[in-house]
């Protein structure tokens, strides 16, 4: 029995574990956003095929069922459109700690959807999953992503140098933002998302 909910509702979104039926909508959203995704996401090296989208949906469900990973779609309540994805790409139940990851369909960037979803994932971690720590990591150059973490009150802990390779092959420095349990709850209480 998983500890992670199949669905979370926020003001404007439903965050839901994908089913195989979501593959076509995921494929459209990912392909439409390829220019931005390929700059920042290690998994977006080439245009995603429909088979890969189907695989993503199926595997996400399996990993969700046994608590290995949490990938949910960001779905607009008003029309059911898939406008991105988020979740905990890395989690450690021993600590417990959760890393939040996200991407947004390029046509829907700049409306606060990612901050709204990340706020809900942070609350879930602290309120329901007993998190000691929630973190967000990103390429040091990804300023839009810094702003999501900072808008939610996450604290910059540091920048790790030469931590990874970009898809273009260059070296990447990684920013690490975190919220800790009691501090996180207080900070989030003062943030509307
Ligand atoms: C990083 C990324 C997710 C940020 O998306 P985003 O749309 O800027 O983030 P949000 O949804 O939180 O929106 C915030 C923006 O909407 C604006 N906004 C509008 N309405 C808003 C609302 N109701 N609430 C909050 N912000 C709102 C904010 O002012 C902000 O704009 P600004 O950054 O220009 O000041 C997006 O650029 C992306 O998908 N990039 C490619 C993938 C990626 O880099 N993922 C992260 C890897 S670590």
Detail the poorly predicted runs: none
Strand content is 25-35%
Helical segment tally?
Answer: 6
Mean pLDDT: 96
**Secondary-structure element order, as H and E?**
EEHHHEEEHEHEEH
Q: What would CATH call the class?
A: Alpha Beta
- Structurally, how many domains make up the residues? 1
How would you describe this protein?
This protein is α+β, with helices and mostly antiparallel strands and about 190 residues long. The chain has a single domain, classed as Gcn5-related N-acetyltransferase (GNAT) (Aminopeptidase), CATH 3.40.630.30. The protein has helices at about 25-30, 35-40, 50-65, 115-130, 145-150, 180-190; strands at about 5-10, 15, 70-75, 80-90, 95-105, 135-140, 155-165, 170-180. The chain has an eight-stranded mixed sheet with strand order 1-2-3-4-5-6-8-7, with helices on both faces. About 35% of the residues are buried. Bound molecules: coenzyme A. Coenzyme A binds next to helix 2, strand 5, helix 4 and helix 5.
Task: Characterize this entry briefly.
Helices cover 35% and strands 32% of the residues. With 193 residues, the chain is α+β, with helices and mostly antiparallel strands.
Q: Topology, pairings included?
A:
Elements: E1 7-9, E2 13-16, H1 23-32, H2 34-40, H3 50-65, E3 70-76, E4 82-92, E5 97-104, H4 113-128, E6 133-139, H5 143-151, E7 155-165, E8 171-180, H6 181-189
Parallel strand pairs: 5-6
Antiparallel strand pairs: 1-2, 2-3, 3-4, 4-5, 6-8, 7-8
Helix pairs in contact: 1-3, 4-6
The structure holds coenzyme A.
């Amino acid at each position: 029995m998983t500890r992670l909910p199949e669905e979370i509702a926020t003001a404007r979104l439903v965050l839901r574990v994908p089913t195989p039926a979501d593959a076509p909508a995921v494929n459209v959203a990912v392909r439409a956003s390829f220019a931005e995704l390929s700059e920042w996401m290690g998994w977006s090296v080439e245009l995603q095929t429909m088979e890969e989208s189907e695989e993503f949906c199926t595997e996400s469900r399996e990993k969700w069922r046994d608590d290995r990973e949490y990938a949910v779609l960001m779905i607009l309540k008003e029309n059911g459109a898939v406008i991105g994805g988020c979740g905990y790409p890395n989690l450690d139940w021993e600590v417990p700690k959760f890393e939040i990851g996200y991407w947004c369909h390029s046509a829907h960037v700049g409306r606060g959807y990612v901050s709204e979803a990340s706020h809900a994932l942070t609350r879930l971690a602290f309120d329901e999953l007993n998190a000691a720590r929630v973190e967000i990591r990103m390429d040091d150059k990804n300023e839009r992503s810094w702003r999501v973490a900072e808008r939610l009150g996450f604290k910059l802990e540091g920048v790790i140098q030469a931590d990874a390779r970009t898809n273009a092959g260059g070296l990447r420095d990684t920013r690490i933002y975190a919220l800790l349990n009691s501090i996180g709850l207080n900070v989030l209480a003062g943030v509307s998302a």
